Amino acid sequence: MAELGALLAYNDDGSAGICNLENGRGTWLNLQPQDQDQKQDQDQRPYAVWRWMAAYNGRPACLMGRLAPEAARLELRASDGTVAEADVVDGTFAAEIAVDMVSLRHARERLEAHEAASAEGRAEFERLMADSRSEMTKLKVRVYDSAGTLLYDGAAINATD
Question: How many CA atoms, within 13 angstroms, populate the side-chain half-sphere of residue 9?
């Protein structure tokens, strides 16, 4: 999803990757291991998370990755009942959802209150990252197969994402 700053790629041979985009140009490429399906089995989720971003400074929350072969559709759900259908293309998915992540409402101000290179600035950044992870675990994911059978209903991310 270019508007989210990423290009996802998947090949039938199992190779996959995500390219970070800024101003329409790639800034880095992260190739995913071909044993990603093993990780999915361990997680008992029919999807793998390649990138997530919490909602802050007016931006929506987003979740991107790869679906297991049996999965066809993914929904991202907020606690207020809002549902966002993921774009699914060639085994990859990307979803964004506008949601109020309370602990991140003033993320920019929290960071700007400290000098970035200072110990306080680094500590505040770490607190924001922990708050981001906590807020993202409140988002739920539902994954369905092509017949509409529910394959997964649970937290969007886990401790290893």
Answer: 12
